[in-house]
Write a structure and sequence with these properties.
- With about 425 residues, the chain is α+β, with helices and mostly antiparallel strands.
- It has 15 helices and 14 strands.
- The strands form 4 sheets. The protein has a 7-stranded mixed beta sheet with strand order 1-2-3-4-12-9-5, sandwiched between helices. Strands 6-14-13 form a 3-stranded antiparallel beta sheet.
- It is globular and about 60 Å long.
- It starts with 5 loop residues before the first strand and ends with a strand.
Length: about 425
């Protein structure tokens, strides 16, 4: 690396980190290096914090579980302005739960927390297992290779719509699957892939508004389904307006479908480490360890960003109000001080539950902070589909299975892991 850097010395309790200043705008390097961008700089400079410029703005990148817990603490950072507009408008919109802070955020988040009870999660997992069996039979009959990520997206879209209580035809399910894929796939890109995802999101938002409108007109919003509960939610003395209800409907659907990315990497791990197939089928503890290692190693979104709400200090590094701060998920989950030989896939790291924390969906308090309330459901669905995949018979046609870490979000292989289902 050729950047000339300047260290900033801090003093205090002894837990301080040396903040490294890297001059110049590093946007091009970030785009060309992808997930490795932050990790290389943390490791080269032996630090957990560096400050540079990205997209013309000063940004501070942090590494570590403690950095994530600091970042996700209630009231420290706001999400608006914390990620490029191209990514923000692929995944979110103004007024969604992620853009709210304080009491407004906690109140809106109750919708999602109430739908993540054991009962609701079990129902979603059951729907997912049902949808997998139905789709797998069709893929076997077709006797053609399928992309595991795209196949899992079909299953999860089907299951999530049934669970929510949204009736849809097979054609509508396919359209929603394609739209969610475009949003997720485009969020980490600039240019045509991102533009396409944002255009497809507009189509999905129109569909979601129509669903809300039709359910309210028919009285279906009073039915005790997840969709009904969403439509019953009240703020400021009234229900959510149609547009906001539609956005939060997508915030239930899109993250569910995003679990397909982890399923794709689970399939790649089962292919590369076949000894784990029987283990995850017969032993719940081994299944837990395997899927947690998949979540640790699967390169999905590389970082989370936010703007400091007020003056903040972390390990001697100070942030002024409005400062842009990013926590590097990829580097944190490959920190060699925590994860020896971090690039090796080794589920035995999780032999002791909760010994390490995977931060890919946030850290800190779920009810009070911005940690994703859907994390328990993600874990459930990944276990259901990993076990189903391990039980099934399939082979892997010849293909390029390298993971391109310059592409965000990365894929397991060049085509999302092509598999050929067998009877």
């Amino acid at each position: 690396m050729s950047e000339a850097t300047t260290p900033e010395t801090t003093s205090g309790t002894g837990n301080e980190v040396q903040l490294i200043h890297i001059p110049g705008d590093q946007s091009l390097r970030f785009l060309t290096e992808g997930y490795a961008f932050g990790r290389r700089r943390f490791e080269e400079h032996g630090t957990d914090a560096f400050r540079t410029r990205l997209l013309g703005r000063t940004a501070t990148m942090l590494r570590g579980t403690d950095a994530a817990e600091f970042f996700y603490g209630e009231g420290r950072f706001r999400r608006v302005g914390g990620m490029p507009r191209s990514a923000f408008h692929s995944l979110q919109d103004e007024g969604s739960v992620q853009t709210l802070e304080g009491p407004a955020h906690r109140g809106r988040k109750r919708i999602f927390l109430d739908l993540m009870t054991d009962e609701h999660r079990a129902a979603l997992a059951h729907r997912t297992a049902e949808a997998w069996e139905e789709h797998w039979s069709r893929w076997v009959a077709a006797s053609e290779p399928v992309s595991l990520i795209r196949a899992a997206e079909r299953v999860l879209t089907d299951a999530a719509l049934r669970w929510l209580g949204v009736e849809s035809s097979a054609l509508e399910q396919r359209a929603r699957t394609d739209e969610f894929h475009a949003m997720l796939d485009g969020a980490g890109a600039f240019g045509p892939r991102n533009w396409y995802g944002r255009r497809r999101r507009l189509q999905t938002e129109r569909w979601a508004r129509a669903v809300v409108r039709e359910h309210r007109a028919s009285g279906s919003g009073d039915v005790d389904t997840p969709l009904g509960r969403l439509l019953q939610h009240r703020e400021a003395g009234g229900p959510l307006d149609e547009g906001t209800a539609a956005i939060e409907l997508l915030n239930l659907l899109r993250p569910t479908v995003a679990v397909a990315w982890f399923v794709g990497f689970a399939g790649l791990a089962l292919h590369r480490h076949p000894v784990w197939r029987e283990r995850v089928v017969t032993d719940d503890h081994q299944l837990f360890a395997f899927t947690e290692e998949v979540r640790r190693t699967a390169p999905f979104f590389p970082a989370i960003g936010g703007r400091a709400v007020g003056a903040q200090t972390w390990r001697g590094v100070t942030f002024a109000p409005g400062d842009w701060v990013l926590v590097d998920f990829f580097a944190t989950q490959r920190d060699p001080r925590v994860w020896p030989d971090p690039d090796r896939f080794d589920p035995s790291r999780f032999a002791v539950p909760e010994h390490h924390h995977v931060i890919v969906q946030g850290a800190g308090s779920m009810p009070d902070g911005h940690r994703c309330p859907g994390e328990p459901a993600t874990v459930d669905l990944l276990r259901v589909l990993t076990r189903a995949l391990a039980r099934a018979t399939w082979d892997v046609p010849a293909q390029d299975l390298r993971v391109d870490l310059r592409r965000m979000p990365a894929l397991p292989g060049r085509e999302g892991l092509l598999i050929r289902p067998r009877g």
